[in-house]
Amino acid sequence: MDKLMDKMQEAAMYITSRIGSDPVHIGMVLGSGLGGLADELQDAVAISYKDIPYFPVSTVFGHKGKLVVGTLEGKRVMCMQGRFHYYEGYGMDQVVFPIQVMHALGINNLLVTNAAGGVNTSYKPGDLMLIVDHIKLIADSPMRGPNYDSLGERFFDMTNAYDKKLSALAREEAKRLGITLQEGVYMFFAGPSYETPAEIRAARILGSDAVGMSTVPEALAASHMRMKVLGISCITNMAAGILDQPLNHTEVMETGDRVKEAFTLLVRNVTKQWPV
Ligand SMILES: O=P(O)(O)O[C@@H]1C[C@H](O)[C@@H](CO)O1
Ligand SMILES: Nc1nc2[nH]cnc2c(=O)[nH]1
After folding, report:
1. Which family, according to the similarity comment (predicted)?
2. Do the domain assignments include residue 47?
3. Does ligand 1 have an atom closer than 6 angstroms to the CB of 233?
4. Atom 6 (ligand 2) nearest CA
5. How confident is the model at residue 268 (pLDDT cuts 50, 70, 90)?
6. In CATH, what number is assigned to the domain containing residue 230?
7. Tens digits of residue pLDDT in 163-193
8. What's this model's pTM, rounded to 2 decimal places?
């Protein structure tokens, strides 16, 4: 066994010692302001990241740094209440390590969520957006370096990175529940600064509808391991230069808090129907 596989196994064994060996159906990464969903799990077991071998720790306000495992709408789910970002100083390999540990635990379904800035001017803060594709032009790939053939192929396909059936499910459920669900392309920026207005104009020309500092590394790692991914952004603010106002993390958190009911309702109903 190589080193990454050893680390994944050790982390997975520790988590299993805390949650038991019943299968976990869906992994969920909860973005800034969206972590409250984890508090709704039944029979929940919460594990601090600092207790899990080789896990990094969250340093961002609004990211609690806990793995919470429990039942949501009849499915056993594992929520990351707080994620790791490249701008925190972690390598891309550390950013995606939890996703690889989920895979080691037998999880093949992943919901990735985030707070994002709206680039598409038809969006408004508080909208939810189904991620149909992404753009990443900067920073390393998390898969840079030796390939772990037991995890996935060296050159892997990203055509269907965001699963079409799960996307259709989210679309249907949003419609049924009367929740506005925009659809768009999420573009990764390394942060921690928000973008300049010129970068946002460039992002729009390139075809992005929303910008953020996460999610894409996790979607890459999940695709490498052929996990099924559903992505939902919460448009917490209009991206830089669209409105005549500066951006700040407080607004991001406040908007996340404002939409938490709609977000939770949508995720609950998608989870209920999620084929596992
Ligand atoms: O973890 P996410 O992508 O939801 O967090 C976003 C990006 C930054 O961490 C932060 C900026 O306000 O929100
Ligand atoms: N990069 C980036 N990340 C965000 N997260 C929440 N809002 C934003 C934004 O406008 N830009």
Report:
1. Belongs to the PNP/MTAP phosphorylase family.
2. no
3. no
4. 116
5. very high
6. 3.40.50.1580
7. 999 999 999 999 999 999 999 999 999 999 9
8. 0.96
